[in-house]
Amino acid sequence: MSLNGTAYLILGMLSIESDRSGYDIRKAVESSVSHFWRESYGQIYPMLKRLAAEGLIIPRQSNSKGRPERQEYSLSAKGRACLQDWLAAPYRDDPPRNEFLLKLFFGRSASPNACVQQVKNFQDKNKSLLSALLGIERWEQANGGGNPHLPYWLLTLSFGIAHLRASIEWSDAALATLESANPTATAGAKKRLKGM
Amino acid sequence: MSLNGTAYLILGMLSIESDRSGYDIRKAVESSVSHFWRESYGQIYPMLKRLAAEGLIIPRQSNSKGRPERQEYSLSAKGRACLQDWLAAPYRDDPPRNEFLLKLFFGRSASPNACVQQVKNFQDKNKSLLSALLGIERWEQANGGGNPHLPYWLLTLSFGIAHLRASIEWSDAALATLESANPTATAGAKKRLKGM
DNA sequence: ACACACATGTAATTGGTTACATGATTTC
DNA sequence: GAAATCATGTAACCAATTACATGTGTGT
């Protein structure tokens, strides 16, 4: 007993679609929730065994002509009940560690330019992730018709999008403060922007 | 060699103020960066030993009359250089796991009301954390005069504040979608609000 | 007397990534 | 024939929390 996030991830993925293998689940994670959850095979495969041993999921050998053997799983009634309990239980929030913010917090101890570079890099990464999520959102809205899970998926997407936008806006303000405190650091870049 | 976040947290904290003990560092973490970083004694004390052994920090016995013995540490030149290297190196971003979003993602497999409850709880928590951070921000702006680290601290604060606001706004929108998809679930609450 | 804050550590457990190891099938 | 993808797993290591264990000083 006493399951962790990995376990519920598996149960949840099987509740969306049955007869998935460990490999399938990993792929599904990467393509649908990777902006807020990741799993490695080193977590997934042992957990599949354990969940099967506890009767929460049901294994089934699949040998579709020629392809490598795969072990597929589906939810048992017990597993579904277990998932529902977890979904109704309060989530635990441990504020996640943020290495970027930690570097910024110690910014005064850094070499003059380092913070500005960090924030610029942060903003770039957020911008490119934002356009990726916006693309997925458009695609899902156009092609996801009839999928009963779609409203929930879109909520997690819009959450990500809202936070990325907040990060990008904050970055602008942060760069302004940093550059006003340390004007020389970016003089070269400013000249280039003005065509000099 | 090969230091982790805990190590740099310690170096950074000692760069802000010297002669701190493990206990001090833990307290400082809780009171200044706890909205994006936490450490337990189980991490701090062994790491202090290790950093001292590698010459990055310098231990000093302190026995101020009567009080329990404490082991204080300060940064060495090597430690300061090491911290600066880290501050200039690109941060690594692994998108943090978010259990709340995972539950929402599987929301379709939950009992009818569960999602709404989760989002309400999420919003409540964010609101109370927001007012806490706003309080800290006001206090720092009023009392932090002359502290050269303050601008950086305020940046991490405004980051938190911006994200909490984004979360709260998103929650409103999310509740609207969830309730329009599942109108009966909150009929009772609505009636009560209208005084019936 | 009791509780609380100060102070330092270790051990057990859990959680998680990465690298290793293997092999089949499909596509170019 | 080579490369990519499908497929499953283990071992070593690193990271982190929690519980345990101990003891002093301060304030009420």
Structure description:
- The structure is a homodimer of 196-residue chains.
- The first copy, chain A, is mainly alpha-helical and 196 residues long.
- Chain A folds into two domains: 5-88, Winged helix-like DNA-binding domain superfamily/Winged helix DNA-binding domain (Arc Repressor Mutant, subunit A), CATH 1.10.10; 99-194.
- In chain A, 63% of the residues lie in helices and 6% in strands.
- Chain A has helices spanning 5-16, 22-32, 41-53, 77-88, 99-105, 114-143, 150-181, 187-193; strands at residues 57-62, 70-75.
- In chain A, strands 1-2 form a two-stranded antiparallel ribbon.
- In chain A, strand 1 (57-62) and strand 2 (70-75) form a beta hairpin.
- Chain A is elongated, with a radius of gyration of 23 Å.
- The mean pLDDT of chain A is 91.
- The interface between A and B is large, with 69 and 69 residues.
- Chain A binds a DNA duplex (28 and 28 nucleotides) through residues 4-6, 21-23, 38-43, 45-46, 66-71.
